[in-house]
Specification:
- Its EC number is 2.4.2.10.
- The protein is of the alpha/beta class.
- It is built from seven helices and ten strands.
- The strands form three sheets. A six-stranded mixed sheet has the order 7-6-5-8-9-10, with helices on both faces. A two-stranded antiparallel ribbon has the order 1-4. A two-stranded antiparallel sheet has the order 2-3.
């Protein structure tokens, strides 16, 4: 299943250029860019992501899974849907980038209660900034962040930065795995 996801990502979501031409969230330019949405929002990609994320969190005894909108939303929703299919339902939640300015003011949207154990997910990590922001906001709302799962680790220190806040942090796919598959597909 993992290799199928890697191949799917290479076909739908991975971009390379000879010169650094892709602007990252950090503002830095890169030769390597991954936009996971075309993969995750495809029915087969959603199935693969959901099941692989659930495999990564199955021992954590979680109540919820989510992260910073928009990158984490399809990952969390795929995992929540897969959790129901697997007979171990976990609720999805989304963390706002800006606080809601009306109604009940909160960062976390979804049916989450203070004290519940959650995993924070993200689609891609470079520096870890977005994932760390999600972890901090989840904790500020009283959630216990027990695990962090990243779909694609660019292997630029982000996963290690996340692990400073959540020691049980892992990635489903690494940049090295994508590069290896990309090179095989190009032959």
């Amino acid at each position: 299943m993992k290799q199928e996801l890697i191949d799917f990502l290479c076909k739908k979501s991975v971009n390379f250029s000879d010169e650094p031409s892709f602007k990252l969230v950090s503002g830095r330019l890169s030769r390597f860019y991954v936009n996971c949405k075309p993969t995750i929002l495809h029915p087969r990609g959603m199935y693969l992501v959901g099941h692989l994320v659930m495999e990564a969190v199955k021992e954590a005894k979680l109540d919820g899974i989510g992260g910073l909108t928009f990158g984490a939303d399809p990952v969390a929703m795929a995992a929540a849907f897969a959790s129901e299919l697997m007979g171990c339902p976990i609720k999805a939640f989304s963390i706002r980038k800006e606080p809601k300015d009306h109604g009940i003011i909160k960062w976390v949207e979804g049916d989450m209660q203070e004290g519940e154990r959650v995993a924070v997910v993200d689609d891609v990590v470079t520096t870890g900034g977005s994932t760390i922001k999600a972890i901090e906001r989840a904790r500020s709302q009283g959630l216990e962040v027990a695990k962090a799962v990243i779909l694609v680790d660019r292997q630029e220190g982000g996963l290690e930065n996340v692990a400073k806040l959540v020691p049980d942090a892992s990635a489903i796919v690494t940049r090295a795995e994508l590069l290896e598959a990309w090179n095989k597909l190009k032959k």
